[in-house]
Amino acid sequence: MCECRLAAGRSHQGRLGLGRQFKAMAAPPSEIGFMLLRDVLWEEIDMKRSAINRYIADAADFFRENHFVLPPYADWTPEEWQQRGSDANELRSERLGWDVTDFNGGHFETMGLTLFTLRNGMPVGGKTAKVYAEKIMFVRQDQVTPFHYHARKTEDIINRGGKGTGRLAVQLYNSTEDRGLAQSPVMVSCDGIQRRVEAGGTVILGPGESITLTPYLYHTFHAINGHGLIGEVSSVNDDDADNYFLEPLPRYPEIVEDEPPFRVLCTEYRLA
Ligand SMILES: [Fe+2]
């Protein structure tokens, strides 16, 4: 039996994502058994809260060791978030803070990402009217962020460097109108220099180097020769609606609550 099955006092439905709950409610009785079995199998690859806690602690250490200082709310406990009033609603509505994902693949070390969003605007406008966003990312060596493009966001991906940090390999394709991989050469700006890259070609970013990823440009990246301290400076970020993965993947993981959260994820805020 998986560990999540042993968690006391939690209903089965309570662990299901909303999409799964709606599907189960709408299913005829003959299909519910199959759906529950499928959910048991899914739970085996869902991210455990204990793992997310550990990945956030690792990332905080990594940022600290490399002298990238996070803002105070990076250290707020779940209790502190609860105690904060509406003065912190900008953080909540713009989804600033911690973001850990394995794209629901169940293999975080090889496909996943740990991010901290430092600033952002609102996708459909808002009081703060910011038109920019910034993230810092901990990309583990050989850990892949899978192929995706953005339809609205333009982003600079930056190797911030650091002691013993690695390089970032960024593979590129133009996209076709039906969201496939085009075989045309890619023209891309790297620190203000235009580069021509063959379809599927890879750009390696050393410390201090960056690449500008424009809308509809497919990209995947992973760190080599060490973990990557990777920055992102972009137009407004909308992770709910502006990620188009080549292989359909959820941007956020399903989570099994096997221990209390160490930090609140940016998807878990409730406006005060
Ligand atoms: Fe991206």
Keywords:
single chain, 272 residues, alpha+beta, Jelly Rolls, 6-stranded antiparallel beta sheet, 5-stranded antiparallel beta sheet, 6 helices, 21% helix, 29% strand, globular, binds fe (ii) ion
Descriptive account of the structure:
The chain has 6 helices and 15 strands. It is an alpha+beta fold and 272 residues long. The strands form 4 sheets. It has a 6-stranded antiparallel beta sheet with strand order 2-3-4-13-6-11, with helices on one face. A 5-stranded antiparallel beta sheet has the order 10-7-12-5-14, with no helix packed on it. It starts with 11 loop residues before the first helix and ends in a 16-residue tail after the last strand. The N terminus is likely disordered. The protein binds fe (ii) ion. Fe (ii) ion binds next to loops.
